[in-house]
Amino acid sequence: MLKLTVNIVLDGNYMPAYATPGAAGADIRTPVGFILAPGKSFFWPLGILVEIPEGYEGQLRLRSSLGKGGLTIPQGFGTIDSDYRGPLCGLVYNISDGFIQVEAGERVFQLVIAPVVRADFRVAYKLSETPRGDGGFGSTGK
């Protein structure tokens, strides 16, 4: 397992922490609680700022236990670029039929640090052929 130093400024009370030795994401606790009505979203600062080293990105993901309860991140997950220095913020949306309550101090998100590969894009007039071709959206079966 790779180790990397990520500088954190706490603007709240909680340091991200890995729940188990094999965890890919460090849990982030919310500094404020909230109640979210069905079909509504909530956006709030998470109380931390990060300095991610160049060549890496942060991925802010919702913990699966909250997804099971009806919360989702509208865009799937948030990307934190290495040159961003502002506060981390969370955006969740309630897709359930009921109200969802999250208490202050509850683990809501996970922060995953991943390497970034920069592409050298170039114009091509034809792409290589594969057995799959242009088949998408379930074309390979279930």
CATH topology name, in short, is: Deoxyuridine 5'-Triphosphate Nucleotidohydrolase, Chain A
Given the structure, what is the number of helices? Answer: 1
Share of helix, binned: under 10%
Q: How far is the first residue's CA from the last residue's CA? A: 33 Å
**Radius of gyration, taken over Cα atoms and rounded to an integer in Å:** 19 Å
Spatial order of the strands forming the largest sheet: 1-4-8-6
CATH class: Mainly Beta
The dominant shape is: globular
What does the largest sheet look like? 4 strands, antiparallel
Folded structure, characterized:
It is a single chain. The protein has 142 residues and is mainly beta. It has one domain: Distorted Sandwich (Deoxyuridine 5'-Triphosphate Nucleotidohydrolase, Chain A). The protein has 1 helix and 10 strands. The chain has one helix spanning 64-68, and strands at 7-10, 26-29, 34-36, 41-51, 56-62, 71-72, 78-80, 87-94, 100-102, 107-115. It is globular and about 55 Å long. It starts with 6 loop residues before the first strand and ends in a 27-residue tail after the last strand.
What are the key terms here?
142 residues, Deoxyuridine 5'-Triphosphate Nucleotidohydrolase, Chain A, 4% helix, mainly beta, globular, 4-stranded antiparallel sheet
Quick overview of this protein structure:
This protein is mostly beta strands. The chain is built from one helix and ten strands; from the N terminus they run βββββαβββββ. The chain has one helix at residues 64-68; strands spanning 7-10, 26-29, 34-36, 41-51, 56-62, 71-72, 78-80, 87-94, 100-102, 107-115.
